Amino acid sequence: MRTWRNGSRARLRIWCLTTWGFESLRAHFDFPLTETGQRDFCYYYKALYMVTFFFNILVAFSTSPAAFLAGTDTVPPKDFYPVDSVSINEAERLREQYRNMMEQKNKVGSKAANFSFITREGSKTSLYDLSTDGNILLLFYDPDCEDCHATIHQLSDLSSERNFSIVAIDSEDDRPRWEQTAMQLPEGWTVGFATDPVQEDEIYYLLSMPTMYLLDKNKKVLLKETSLEEVLKIR
Questions:
Q1: Which of 66-70, 83-87, 106-110, 228-232 has the highest mean pLDDT?
Q2: Contact in structure between 202 and 36 (CB atoms under 8 Å)
Q3: Range 67-75, long-range pairs (CB < 8 A, 24+ positions)
Q4: What is the pLDDT of residues 215-231, one digit of tens each?
Q5: Whole-angstrom Cα distance, residue 86 to residue 100?
Q6: pLDDT tens-digit readout, 97-119
Q7: Which residue has the higher pLDDT, 82 or 215?
Q8: Contact 113/140 with Cβ under 8 angstroms?
Q9: Distance of alpha carbon 143 from alpha carbon 190, whole angstroms
Q10: pLDDT-derived band of residue 163, with 50, 70 and 90 as boundaries?
């Protein structure tokens, strides 16, 4: 059985911050007292609903992390929050603050953040050390991600018509798994394993896998968190 990897935990944390505005429920279960001094029973009911809701989230996430994290609209009704309106407003404020912060990272027109990685040939390098004559498709992938396999297959079929080089980076933390699979990616690609904590430090906003950025030869971001269809429009 595979262990819960740091990259998956990081993406779950990003999802919680983006969707809810907080990482943990601990500080949000502040049950009020009724006029008789007893805990309000309806709040315990709401808490039970929230626990059940999060259990369903964890089941869905563990079944297919990439597919689950690709959708960020899974939010329960506000009247089921076991918190007061002040806490709800604070969570919404933090959520928007976090989303805005992520939008500012590696935004279109800015220079992409640098990070170090080791190539499948065994050399240590970084994004800024790469030298190309044209655009770069920066592809963050997970060796065990079915959507990643599909995207890699589509890209490999474009080898004769694409006008960009491909840099495929595994930003998870299972290096032995990467070493087992790295040579399976097409020849001519730069395939690497991130040695900097790209996900844990949120150097890039990687909510799901695969995530693609299109860069020019100077590492300026042309497209952020884009699709293959949009990449192919750039000539």
A1: 106-110
A2: no
A3: 67/147, 69/11, 69/12, 69/15, 69/207, 69/208, 70/207, 70/208, 72/15, 72/18, 72/19, 72/207, 73/19, 74/19, 75/19, 75/20
A4: 999 999 999 999 989 99
A5: 21
A6: 777 888 889 999 999 999 999 99
A7: 215
A8: no
A9: 15
A10: confident
Nearest to 117 by CA among 60, 62, 59, 175: 175
Total count of residues recorded for the chain: 235
- Write a three-state SS string for the chain: CCCCCHHHHHHHHHHHHHHCCCCCCHHHCCCCECCCCCECHHHHHHHHHHHHHHHHHHHHHHHCHHHHHCCCCCCCCHHHCCCCHHHHHHHHHHHHHHHHHHHHCCCCCCECCCCEEEECCCCEEEHHHCCCCCEEEEEEECCCCHHHHHHHHHHHHCCCCCCEEEEEEECCCCHHHHHHHHHHCCCCCEEEEECCCCCCCCCCCCCCCCEEEEECCCCEEEEEEECHHHHHHCC
CA distance to 61, 175, 226, per residue, from 66 (Å): 8, 19, 15
**Which among 215, 46, 66 has a CA at the least distance from the CA of 151?**
66
Which tokens sit at 1? 């059985």
